[in-house]
Amino acid sequence: MNEDDLHILRIYLDAGATLNGVAYDAVLMARAREMDIAGAAVLRIEEAFGEAVLHGAKARDLAPEQHLIVEMVDSRAKLDALAATLEVAADVGLATIGKIQVVAYGGHRHRTGAAPA
């Protein structure tokens, strides 16, 4: 993937959000895999501050066990296609897409197989 075309899709939702009895964050992750999105993560909000309105509440009022952010990184076109599949519901809040720029990249690598000796 061209690093100059990286975008991020963020979807804020209640941890209890479901679609047809399935956790909505799991639905989104499955869609991301099916659509071959470059990267995705589900993040639990542990601490927040500011005046941004999420889920009809101030960010400082968010309880950690009640809210998630699903983040996906890929090209704008692929994220637009995924965003078009989002279901609008009371427990699915703000969804944003923005261009990102990699400013640093550490040595973190996923390892497979045996641990180094």
Describe this structure in words.
- The protein has helices at residues 24-34, 76-83; strands spanning 7-14, 18-19, 22-23, 39-44, 53-54, 57-58, 67-74, 92-99.
- The protein is globular and about 35 Å long.
- The chain has 2 helices and 8 strands; from the N terminus they run βββαββββαβ.
- Strands 4-7-1-8 form a 4-stranded antiparallel sheet. A two-stranded antiparallel sheet has the order 2-3. It has a two-stranded antiparallel sheet with strand order 5-6.
- A hairpin with a 2-residue loop joins β5 and β6 (57-58).
- The protein has a single domain (3-99), classed as 2-Layer Sandwich (Alpha-Beta Plaits).
- It is of the alpha+beta class and 117 residues long.
- Mean pLDDT is 81; it is low at 55-60.
- It is 16% helix and 32% strand.
Secondary structure elements and their pairing?
Blueprint lengths: L6 E8 L3 E2 L2 E2 H11 L4 E6 L8 E2 L2 E2 L8 E8 L1 H8 L8 E8 L18
Antiparallel strand pairs: 1-7, 1-8, 2-3, 4-7, 5-6
SSE order in H/E notation?
Answer: EEEHEEEEHE
User: Remind me, CATH topology?
Assistant: Alpha-Beta Plaits
User: Span from first to last CA?
Assistant: 33 Å
Structural class: alpha+beta
Mean pLDDT: 81
* Number of DSSP helical runs: 2
* Count of β-strands: 8
The global form is: globular
CATH architecture: 2-Layer Sandwich
Beta-strand fraction estimate: 25-35%
Question: Which CATH C-level class is it?
Answer: Alpha Beta
The whole-angstrom Rg is 16 Å
- Helicity level, as a percent range? 10-25%
Pfam families: DUF190
Family: Belongs to the UPF0166 family.
